[in-house]
Amino acid sequence: MELMPLTKHLNTINTPRRGDRIYKEECIYSFDTPDSPTGLYVSLTSFLGLSQEHVMWYYNKTSYPVYLHIKRTRKEIPSEDQGDGPEKKITRLAIGTAGGFMPDQQKYTYEEEYNIIVLPDFWSIPYPSNNLPEKVELAVKTIIQMEGAWAVAQVEAVANTWDGEVRSESKHAANLKQLDNGKKIPPSGWKCEKCDLTQNLWLNLTDGSILCGRKFYDGSGGNGHAIEHYRSTGYPLAVKLGTITKGGKADVFSYDEDDMVDDPNLTLHLSHWGINIAQMEKTDKSMIELELDLNQKFGEWVSLQEAASKLTPLYGPGYTGLINLGNSCYLNSVMQMLFIIPDFIKRYEKKALQIFQQNYHDPASDVNIQMAKLGFGLLSGKYSERPSKSDDELQQGIPPRMFKVLIGRGHPGFFSNRQQDAQEFLLYLINLLNRNSRHEVCPTECFKFKVEERYQCSKSNKVKYTHRPEYILPLPIPLEAAVNKDEVTAYETQKKEAEAKGQKLDSNALVRPRIKLSSCLESFSRSEIVEQFYSSALNEKTIAHKTTRLASFPDYLLIHLKKFTVKEDWTPIKLDVAVEMPDTVDLSFLRGNGLQPGEELLPDGVTPPPPVYNTALLDQLTDMGFPPNACKRALYFTENRSLEAATNWVMEHIADSDFDEPFVPPGVDFKPDTFVADQAALEMVTAMGFTREQATKALKATNNNLERAADWIFSHQAELDAQETDSTATPTQENFRDGSSRYKLVGFISHMGTSTMVGHYVCHLLKEDRWVIFNDEKVALSENPPKELGYIYMYQRID
Question: Which top-level group of life is the source organism from (predicted)?
Answer without folding.
Answer: Eukaryota
